[in-house]
Amino acid sequence: MVPDERYKKFLGIEPADEIPNYYELFDISQDESDSEVIQKAYKTQIRKLQEIRTSKDKGFIEFLKEELRKAKRILSDAEKRREYDGSLLADALTGFKDFVGSLMVMGHINKTLYDTMIARGVSDGLSETQAKNAIEELAQQHGATIESEEAAPPPAPTPPPEREEPPPPPSRGRREVVLQAPPPRRTAPSGQHQRPASDEYARPTSDEYARPSSGEYGRSAPTEYADFHETQQRAEPPPPPSRPKGPWYRGVGETPPPWGRRAGSTRSRRRAPPPPARHASSARQARPRSKRLEESIRVFNLGARLSKAAGEVHEKLRLYFPPANGKSSVTKQINGISYDKVLDTEQSTYRDSLKKFESARDKIGQLEGTEADLVRVRSTQNVALLKGYLEEIRQLKMRLLGGVIQQEELRLWQEFVNSSRSSRVTRTIDE
Q1: Which among 387, 414, 385 has a CA at the least distance from the CA of 399?
Q2: What's the Cα-to-Cα distance from 226 to each of 177, 221, 222, 231, rounded to whole Å?
């Protein structure tokens, strides 16, 4: 059924394949219970029709006015509204089962397709529990398996145990010789190995000044140098040489800064300007999304998941071709599922996805921002791609309805199942 554009022309409602329900006519949520909101929605929609002075669709406008009055009476009465909601639920459940039953021909429903089915049921007015129960019921009827949870990742490999280092071998009673600096009174006389006085504490020590340790056979060391070693341990190092003063000695005795430049003084560093802020763009990007942007992204992602489901249906159709059951026509296939029915499922799923992308594009409007531009551009691109896919399906149906011989029918199906599907329409905003 061709979508009726007059609903959008007169009431601003997106075109659909069927007559919109009363909630869609008023553009309100099905959970809305405030009578004032319902009355305001009725006045808004009826005013749009009353402002139309001349039109060739006068009969359709009168039909819309009558529908709005009827919707107001039913939604304002609690008992009538309860009965109307029950009829909507039954219709939604029937349509949802037709959609899911066509996908059960795959034999296995993966996690992505399972989530798409549930999202489709919720968008049709079902609760998540009702959608899950319907999917499980149809899976049992068709003998299909459902992968409702992601596979658990494999366990991480256990690292090998660390090897302990062997302990050091036991000593044999020897002690290391600790060298100490010689006393000032034992320096070399003038003229013989003379060194500056400041170098006495850094001069290599001869073995004759080393404190003897116990011998190889455990004998105690002589005590003639005991006082000398105790004095050296208590001695303090000499003060550093004084730094010469004056303008000609600037920098003498200082440790040079890295890269050969003098470090700035404390006063100059204190007056240095603060570094420029580099997080302005990050702060702008971290702003919370508006409600309209959140809703646009949610609708866009739902359209992407529907496109992914339609692509999987197309791939399954390719796997089932050519027919291997000896039938004279390709319209019959295994398990009583026909090519025509699978083709209708692919077409209806692409139509639903197209509506979601168009709705996301309309909701974003003139909203500015990086994410808003991304939603607007990708929605426009996906709408163009899906219109091409739907036109291809329409052309195939028109040729088959015109009547063709078996060989021509096989050729047409072969061209269709080999047509490619872009992965662009299956990517969500967060991917």
Answers
A1: 414
A2: 15, 10, 8, 9
